[in-house]
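Subject: Sanity check before I submit

Could someone independently write out the structure tokens for this chain? I want to compare against mine line by line before I put it in a report. The sequence has 678 residues.
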Amino acid sequence: MDIQYLKGVGPAVAKKLEKLNLKDTKDALTFFPSSYQDRRSIPKIMSLEPGKDQFLVGKVKSIQSIKKGRFTITNAFLYDNTGEIKCVWFNQPFITKILTINKQIFVHGKLEYDSAPMTKVMKVSEYEVVENNNIDRIMPVYSLTSGIYQKQLRAIIGRSLIKELNLLKDPYPEKLLKKYNLIRLNDAIFNYHYPKDQQSYSQAKRRLVFEDFFYLQLSLALQKKRVKIHEKGIMFEFKNTLSKLYFDSLPYKLTNSQLRVIQEVREDMGKETPMNRMIQGDVGAGKTEVAMAAILVALENGYQVAIMAPTEILAFQHYQKMIKYLLPLDIRVELLVGSVAKKNKERKYYLIETGSAQVVVGTHAVIQEKVKFSNLGLAIIDEQHRFGVLQRSALLKKSGEVIDLLVITATPIPRTLTLTLYGDLEKSILDEMPPGRTPIKTVWLRKMNSEWLSVIRSELDKKNQAYWVFPLVEESEKIDLKAATEGREYISKEVFPEYNIGLLHGKMKQKEKDDIMKQFREKKIQILVSTTVIEVGVDVPDATIMVIEHAERFGLSQLHQLRGRIGRSDKISTCILLSLSRSENSKQRLSAIVGTTNGFELAEVDLQLRGPGDYFGAKQSGLPTMFVANLVKDEPILMESKKMAQEIADNIEDEGYLSIIHELKQKPHLYIGNEGMN
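---
Independent answer below. Compare away.
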């Protein structure tokens, strides 16, 4: 029912409620309290401490309103058996008609001392006349918007719940409720809004957290099953022609971890079932070799390969890498990004459609309708937490056949996010670093000092090199660019005048960037000052020092990825973080990066510090709405919901599960891809 037709609402109030996303009485079911007031134990006036947000119950001793210019101040003295307190309301003169002498009232607000000695004053934010149903119980506290009051919103939510909970049917059958220790959904919703005690709150929360996770887990389990049963993929043959040429040319041996994951990928590609695999590995663990193994198998079988990156910069880096590796094997590689000129784009579309372009590297441009592949067989997605499930499926529909999919992450992803966002994929982990790598030492300084400048000079004197990184934030690009340019001037004139200092920033043309990186690789530049994330995958074995200015402005995974640009040989490397920040969050983040070089550990810390929403940025890349669940704290319940989802997917024919499947169909953002599982 439209909420404006609910008793006590109307069009004017409904317009305000819209700001809280309360448009229908059904919306109240998931408009959960942000906190609670435990009114079972009301403090006495004498025990109240000034400076805090408090509540109390007292009787009205006296009340009066005073007009001061345009303002009206209402003062009331309340008392209980321990003392009295002054309560103040602003611009609410009607209160004098409601709060009559000796009426018992509940007040909530900020407590302070008045100018009069030892007189406690409360600036009232909420008040209610004491009735049977609003004392000696736990009361919900909801998020408000301008013109809506707590008492009013409680009444609106309460009436909506009475209406909607009677109509709510729980799709979970009794046997699953018992097996997974879950209470009924309508009881859970009611008790989460109005918990009687800690036990009823905990039971309600458990069911609602389970609910947040379950339907996504069921969707992923069904997608996985559908692929196994219904979808026939390409059975690639491992011919070892191009593969042998490439791997024999490598100047190093692959790690056991790389060999194991490459074998998993080749086995997947040889099956009739399409490959859906995710590769996770730490910075420098050798993910490129695994990707190349898959690419070469597809090319050996005459199929095209699409490689998709989240940004144009990363797409261009992958393109350069593919040119380097595949040109010697006589393979044609094309770059397709948004900024390519229209005329050039049309030419590229033609090359892709005719099959002349064997490997296509790009951004979202690759999944546009105009792009038609001749014979696409493999898609590789450089994930970096930015592509949702829908974009993955759009890429998979670019071919007449069901193509193989490989998702590769730049840095490790926390375990719970892997389960929620990539539960439909098989997992491979590269957990071994190439031999001969020496662990990087990381230090955090408030500012650079002579001792560490001597360490840097000593490294440069040994013919080693250094990166000096400045943060670059879009909102302050000009300021940051100026800081880096001035930093380069200062370093070259005042600190290391005897060395050649290069500058790399996002405003440079690609040719200029390539030239600077070439000079750095060839050791013509000893210190590279950079405002951008230094090329992922750039190997400069003699780079043994990295200085990061304003380190607090980088995320943990960014810092870890940056640090991975050094320590790429057996030489001892050092990362120096410079930060004056005193914020608790910055301290925790920088302490974590100093404490470990393990990317999997850092990913978990990052999620705990930032929370799921901020971890992904504004759009959250396909992360479903979590009304109650917390991905960091609720992993055990996530695992239980995954288990129940699998049980239903394995027994989809069971008529007892029809109501659950029906409920999933009501969630189109999750049901996509499961149409064949009816």
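---
OP: Matches mine. For the report I'm noting this point. Confidence is low (pLDDT under 50) at residues 618-622.
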